[in-house]
Structures
1.
Amino acid sequence: MKRPSPVLAALLFAASLVPALSTLPAQAAKRSTNAVVSEIMTRAIEDFIQPGYQRFHVASEKLETDIETLCDSPSDETLAAARDAFTQAAVSWSYVEIIRFGPVAGENRYERVLYYPDRRGVGLKQIQSLIGGFEPYPQALGQLQGKSVALQGLPALEYALFGTGAEALASGKDDGRCDYAGLVAANIDAIARELDGAWADPEGISRLWMNPGSDNPVIRDNREALVELLGVVVHGIEMVRDIRLRAFLGETEGTDRPNAAIYRRAGNTFASIAANLQGIQAVFENSGMTLVLSEQDREIGYRISDELSGAIALTRRLQGTAAELLASPESRARLEELRDRLGRIKTLANEDYGNAVGLTAGFSFADGD
Amino acid sequence: MIMTRRLFIGTATAGLAGLSGLLPKPAIAAGKDLFAAAWIQNGGAGFSILDGDGNELTSVSLPDRGHDVATDRAGRWAVAFARRPGTFAVAVDRQNGSEPIPFSTPEDRHFFGHGVFSPDGRVLYATENDYDNAAGMIGIYDVTAGFNRIGEFPSYGIDPHELILMPGGKTLCIANGGIETHPDFGRAKLNLASMEPSVVFVDIESGELLEKHTPPADLFRLSTRHMDIDAAGNVWVGCQYEGPETDEPPLLLRVTMGEGYKPIMLPDQARHGLANYVGSVAANRSENRLVITSPHGNCALVLDTRSGNLVERIAEKNVCGAVAQGSGFLLSSAEGDFGEAKLGRSWDNHIARLFQER
């Protein structure tokens, strides 16, 4: 169980004045809450979002460099290095991909990095058409950026580096496949640079998020700020359970779909899921979201932390591909255990935490419809 | 207080006794304003028929969270639909007081939460998802045969949400939200990079497309979802924006058959207050007023439908349900507010009127 960090301990007194955001009558208590929420938003940005995008940017730069090396000097070693760089980039993206607000929501940046799930196999067909020689490869970054998002990001690059025929990359006889991989890596790096730069700009999006106020066009008050962060946790858990895990784990063995697992070709399925969960844990714990809970409700925060830690530990113990794990009743049961644990976290965050901070019907009640 | 007092001149809501029960009451209280709305409470879900003072006449359990309630012009039927990706609907016959009638979509469809009756009340049209083909459909249900599903036609878009009957009763207007979802992935939005919102007019008899209006390319993430009609026959469409929070798209459109879209420009502060999300739209045709609500922005805006100008801003936590009442509007919220009443239920996004034509 992770308790609030010592750095935040000084804020606990202020927080203890605040039973719930919705029941703050006194001006003094309001000031205290302002300070706590502002601190939470600042920590979420400085301790999670900014370093997360910075790490993704660094990993993307290395990916671009290593693929350039592969194309210039093809060999088993340079291919292995490029594949390893892919894994690092995919995992560093997985850590921050739960952030769906801010610049990642603009210019299709999220989808250009990660087009997934590809439920009808549209993206796969497009990539296979390119690599199979049925469509010409884009020759410049601008050309690639004008094509389908499915051809621009990590799944396309995974197929180029790990998919059928990828071994030709080690020999240099790849008919343009390596250059295409290089363009995709350059595109991912360009997006990573934009995201990193936008959040690092002290006068940019960070300032808006750290300073809720009536004249702020994005976050007008503390409640909105906290609801947005809670949304990262609730929607993040939903995403991992519904789009990552249930993508291949059916309700029954007969409905399993191992080929739908994310990054299955690169063998990164569970490393990615673990990074997703670590990102959610970082948002919840590093920001100190437990601080706005009253003394009596603080146990909810500790339970969420415990369940998240358990889910991460469980995911790390999942060794092998989705297909291998689904084939064994014992390991399949562990996947079901993970799914159920994620369901418990969602309930805790959505209902228990949501109610505790004044969202009467829970967080998800206001989800779009 | 959750009613637009300034517009509220007088209604006929006084006097209904606080009747509540598990079964529908057979009598139809002619002349009274009655409403229907879905709710959740303590982990349970249902929908209620109640008067404008919050007195419940009927309360029916639902297997899961409902969304909107469709009502026929005679005031006989109230049909609550599941929220997406639910597959159930429950019909209450207020004339005969019989047990509620449950019905559902076929296996490869789910409801989107909205429906509308034909003018004669014999047919019910519901927005549905043909999710394996990512195609919007309008399911057709025979009211006279226990809501047996007798056919369907396309919505000519993805993600049909609210649909309304145009004046004259021969044309449906359908808001296609443009967002692909599939029950295998819960409520996840699968195509945000290639959304295709549209508002279409369809011949109710043939199911043929009459007109299709799509937002300009730079607004492809503007999901068109909720609607009502003003006294002049214009359709007012409330939108939800799926792009960056810092963008400032128009969140209200006026669509006129034969003409197309006109974005309604709201004052900056009012637009910011909507948090890029409109949850419900309701017109008061006799007063030339329109209300749009935003539970995300905790506010409702009242506009003049003749000028498009903002008339009033109401701050209310989690407000969403809206319907014309008297010379004003009746609003509800997830906090339990239903007009002036405070009930221990979280009201879903919409309020339906039982007597549409008085």
2.
Amino acid sequence: MIDTKPRTRETQFVSTREVGLWGRMLQGDRWLIILFLLPTLAFLIFLLWLPFLQGIWMSFHNWPFIGKPKWVGLQNYRDFVTASYFWTTIRATLIYSLSTVFQLGIALIAALALNQKFIPLKGIWWGIMLMPYAMPPVVTGAIWMYLLDPNLGMVTHYLIKLGILSEPIYWASDPTWAKWVITLVVSWTFWPFMFLIILSALQSIPESYYELAEVYGANLWQRFRTVTWPHIRGAVLAAFIIRIVWNLEKIDQPFQLTGGGPGYETSVLSVLTYRFAFLSGDFGMAFTVGIFLIAFMMILMIPFLRRFQILITQAGKRG
Amino acid sequence: MNKELDRTYSRRDFLKITTALAAVGLTTSLTPDLLYGEAGTDLKGVTIDYWNMIGVQNPVVKQLSESIIKAFEQRTGAKVNTTWDTYGSIIGPKYRTNFLAGKIPTVFDAISSWTGQLRSFLRPLNDFVGEWDSETKEPVSWLFPLIKVQNRGFSDADQIYDLPFLVIPQAPVVTRLDHWKKAGLDFEKNWPIKDTDHFLELLKAFKDQKVSEYPYEVYGKIWDAGDTQLNGWVRSLDIEKSDFLNADWTRSNCDSEPWIRGVQFYVDLFRKYHYSSPDSPQSTDEDAVEQLIRGQKSIVHADILNRGTFLKRIPKEVEAGLIQWGPHFPMAGGTTGSVVFQAMASFSITKQTGPDAEIKERAAWEFIKEWFRAENQIALAKSSGLSARRDVWDGLKGAPDHYIEAVTSMLNNPGVWSNHPKSVDIQYNLFAPHIQQAMGGADVATELKAYAEEVNKILKT
């Protein structure tokens, strides 16, 4: 029989004390929820947070691959900040992070174009658009290396043939070109992720909204500003934040295309972390650079995270 | 475990290997009588794990390795589990990680200046070397002082942990005769090159006569900047300061005057004289060899491991003497009489534990001895480097490209790179970015000072 009598504050307090914390957690179906959460929690704790905390600990040590670690305090941080290549690598990372903006630009235009009713064979177009993302980054990196090769590459060949270039560009040996090439190759490889997210958001907008806007005489730009953008901005923001993190941690293509050179000109923070950890075997410095990378990501992401939070709050208020 | 090795050899196996090697004029210790005879029983039941690195050099060396492994198995009855590896494994984290995790081969080959990081896992070979027959030991004994110099920062430098079986003197020059004719140069009068002033004259002639736009190449890529021609030039100015590290491994030599002069000349070939291509900060000797083959270069420095590329790509031209090798040469004013640093491919045996430790170490040593048999040393010298055994060199001379004459003439008091536990980092990872910066226009002395400081910091820790 169901007890319909309202509980007083006093009885609730008593029952809580009697049952205890574990009892409360395991009441009803809660144990099942906790059981389902356990693997994720274990993953987060043992494979993410503990290694991360250990990484911070290691950054205060001289931590060789073979041999005993030695406490050095803030020495690694001091060494990194005063290194001759510090600002070079920060500048490279900043330019490299622009790849997220390029990815957004390409993805937004492509998604808006492919969402138009008059475009035929959409499935095929989507397939073509997704191809760069479906290929392993090392493969796309190799393709671009060949295409852009100053002596053998097709791009150089045709640019010279068309009279756009008078001689090949040795981009891997030129600090400015090298930075832009890795940024553009990474943009080309990963823009379909944003394309997918934006396209999904676009397709969730009811057609009637556009019809109504047309009835009121809205032009293309007005329809985008008042109907499309408010519906996709949350998705765009989420995709943008994810891609900032994913782009900045990419190592394979920059390393493959330039090896971090010339000098340290394309040694973005993730590449430098890899170099310290796996080539130099200096885990103290590797984690020091890694922590700088996290700080760099946070600085870039905080404005977007705050904006995302505001959007969620606004959506919540609207119900 | 490699199942292929777990069975007796058939006539087909034998023919497959020997025919492939014979096609390139090589024979090894895997002879028909050994193959068809009764397998040896000295080490029957013993299995050793071998990590092969030299096989990555080219397909011929891999086949040679297979052949030598099979010959050893037939001769002794032991079994060899072979893992085909690459240089990247010891340069990168793979070997360190595996060794720390207890996944350790019984025997492996590597470049001897890269094994310092694994020294605590290795077994000294002095007792084995001591009982070696004099017929083999004597021709390789010229390497023993070099091994000691290479390890002089270790307290047990007298112990041999790495036994070189191939040497790679860095770096001879290689040229194409047709370019000399086009440039109006007399090859007989101008070869070998006397010094860097003479070299500049030759390059000027190639460029002025428009034989090649960039007749030469200096290498900025990480693996070639620090181990091709540069150290030899520094050595010609000062033997003691020519290695990256000083004698007791307490500081870097690279901010010294001979280094500044050597690196400045290296950079000038690219920036001042424009004899090296715009891609120099990222170029390699393998790329330069390809360009020489295509006629885009006139002279390049290249280690003799590249000889296989010439044989594969333009065998007829090599046979006709179009390609000629010559010795490295000193900086103008360099009077030390030595211009060479020598890389060495070596064998190491790891410390074994357990009841069969002794027999496994013995088997590993017998395996190494197989590689030092005269026929194997000759085959290796024809396909990869210069054999460690000096007694086979004379028999190798007379090839149309004179590669043996070129490299053996360079071996006057050669230098060797230190086998410091951080040698890979010091010689390659840290050095290349600074050379690339200098090639980009940064001041050479400033870059070398910054590099030396980075190395000194490592040495302190």
